[in-house]
Here is the input.
Amino acid sequence: MNPSSKTASSVSLIIFEGGRVDGVLETQMQMVRQAMVLDLVDRAKDAGFQQIVVVTSYPELAQRLQPAQVEVVLDREIERPFHFGERLRDAVENCRLEKVLYMGGASAPLISSAELQYMREILEQNDEVFLTNNYHSADLVGFSPASALSRITLPPIDNTLALALGNEGGLRFVPMQRTLGMNFDVDTPTDVLIMSVHPSLGPHTREAVQVLNWDFTRAEAIRDLLGNPSGELVLYGRVGSTLFQYLDANTRCRIRLYSEERGMKALGRDARGEVQALMGKLVEELGYGAFFSFLAEIAGGAVLDTRVLFEHFHWQLSATDRFASDLGELHLISHNALREFTRAALGAPIPILLGGHSLVAGGLWALVDAGIRGA
Here is the structure.
């Protein structure tokens, strides 16, 4: 679409999806994420977006998007360090965008066209505003005008864009109702396992998930535990109050909640090596095997945001190592301590679900919702 044909109040959707890919698990994740972009484009069209821009480093995704008639910016500078804010500014300026809804390619696989339309209409009808799915760790941000990017220190990652628009850009925050569609994203293989059982999964993504040969049993066991009135679940990590309120109202099991290090990435605590976790100290004191045995003494299952623990341990891990730990693929883990940690988790007498922030944000929400809807 020619940018000059847009109306003065038009809102454009811009999707970022790219990055380096190494190893079999990352390749599988990439293929699922590309399918998610295709479904997101279809839903955005149904939501009335007249201009959709996809910024990607994957030539195969650019080719798959050709029939969709969207604007594709192929990022061929993958070898230089990626700076999110600079690339976003360049895309906004080059495509002459006036009002923007930004989304990461894996940010909302369960979002509906109605939710996308709702956000589009808010931005169309208001100026000097921004909205987001997570103020402190965003991967979905709408803002008007797009020129507000010139007022802020451009953030290196998308998680801090909303904070910058509010604190430096002077835009007014428009809060939105928290929904599963806007708060479940895919960062890890565990998230893929969870979304695969949800009825709102798009057709492109469902097709991509069906070819994976991954073990779904631990995720299924946790889903069943959530509906067991005599069950008890340990929930650990960067857990917000909204999720706990939802779980408290919609699950039948008892929940032991341990929340710490919220905003770890957005505040840069991980980058500066400042993460200190009470649960991490407990793991160090007990040892891996005894720690998971203790969890089995107090609960029938556990869901762990392991990224907090990894930062507490100061482990330098590759994406392959993290993903392999999530899936329990011990032979793919090169980090010795992580391999033993994961082995202990797999050997626990209760199901232990390992993952990242999205697991203890939208992941459990999606599992409960799928159960309610009979998926």
Observations:
- Confidence is low (pLDDT under 50) at residues 1-8.
- The chain is about 40% helix and 15% strand.
- The CA atoms of residues 333 and 339 lie 6 Å apart.
